[in-house]
Amino acid sequence: MFERGDHAVVHRFATACRAGSGGALRSLLAAEVVAITDGGGQVPARLEPVRGPAQVARCLTDLLRPELALTVEAVNGEPGVVLRDTGQVVAVVSVRVTSAKVAAVWIVLNPDKLRHWRARE
């Protein structure tokens, strides 16, 4: 369950993502952070979990292209990040915040799992 301060962490995370700043991202990630990507075999994605602040920050900066629009929106009822390319959702990122740091990142790139998001546009 998100606490009030966790929302601020997600907004700082989104700002760092928007800037493409690996250093800013690393400063927001917990030492034990893990990222899971889901491309569903249709979109390139990491097959194994990515562990550690430097590796997770790199995973995120590799994903974030300058032309992508990034917004903070409710993802599964909690604040998350939605990435759009020319208005179409291409990724949804949810996070778990622990002790004011991002401890887990889930990145959904799988077009089948993004249908709901795309239908809302």
UniProtKB/TrEMBL annotation:
InterPro entries in UniProt:
ECF_Sigma-70_Domain, NTF2-like_dom_sf
Tell me one GO molecular function of this protein.
sigma factor activity
- Which SUPFAM superfamilies is this protein grouped with? NTF2-like
Domain of life, source organism:
Bacteria
Q: Which residues form the signal peptide?
A: none
- Record's PANTHER family? ECF RNA POLYMERASE SIGMA FACTOR SIGI-RELATED, SIGMA 19 FACTOR
Q: What is this protein called?
A: Siderophore-interacting protein
Question: What species is this protein from?
Answer: Kribbella speibonae
